[in-house]
Amino acid sequence: MRPNSPHNYPGTLGHKPIAVQFHAGSHYVALRLLEGYLPQEKIKLIHYGSPQQRFEAMWNGEVDACVVMEPWIALGEKLGCKALCEGHYLGAENASDDMDEATFAAITRAVGQAVDRLNADKRRYLHYLIDDPRYAAALVKYGGLTPDDFHLPRLRYAKATPYTDEIVADTYHWMVRWGLIDPTARADDLVDNRIAEAAVTLADD
């Protein structure tokens, strides 16, 4: 929210435009967060694409709110913006049908090592967020960021683990309820843990 926004509570966002990227993390997190405060028909999400586009739509007053991740959260807070609610989403590891288990295990092992390094000293790696070519010019435009501008507990990194059947089923039914997936699709046709389970086992060996 802009610093002068009249909104201080998610429940006042009924029928107000909120910038997200459709069928991506910002879209799903927005629905998860807002459905506890507003009925479905009052949630008005607008597709704005990239995090920068969503942030600038909010900052310029095109929308009342936006859903973004770091470093845009830190930038908004530095500029005096208000956060109404916050959530974390569970990412997915994707592999093509022809990827062999050894290759996927190597990728999983590399990601796991990166997670260990990040969690050991998050501040050490913040320059990657600040200097990332996708963000750097825009961040400078708004005054730039330093490592001290970040709230480190917000940055959470966890090693890949297979989804449980319960998580898959709950997520599937939630997506069907919101019309995000064809109800004729079967959950076990959409999520296959076999390679992930083998890769985690091999990565731990």
Q: How many strands appear in the DSSP assignment?
A: 3
Tell me the β content.
under 5%
Terminal CA distance:
47 Å
Ranges where pLDDT stays below 50 over 5 or more residues in a row are none
Order of strands in the sheet with most strands: 2-1-3
**Number of domain units:** 2
- Summarize the amount of helix as a percent range: 40-55%
Question: Structural class given helices, strands, pairing?
Answer: mainly alpha
Shape: globular
| Number of separate helices | 9
- The protein's oligomeric status is single chain
Mean pLDDT: 90
Alpha carbon gyration radius: 19 Å
Note the main sheet. Answer: 3 strands, parallel
The string of secondary-structure elements, in order, is EHEHEHHHHHHH
Describe what this molecule looks like in 3D.
This protein has 205 residues and is mostly helical. The chain folds into two domains: 10-78, D-Maltodextrin-Binding Protein, domain 2 (3-Layer(aba) Sandwich), CATH 3.40.190.10; 101-204, no CATH class. Helices cover 41% and strands 5% of the residues. It is built from nine helices and three strands. Strands 2-1-3 form a three-stranded parallel β-sheet, sandwiched between helices. Helix 4 crosses helix 9 (194-204). The longest helix is centred in the middle third of the chain and has 20 residues, at 101-120. The termini are far apart. 20% of the residues are buried.
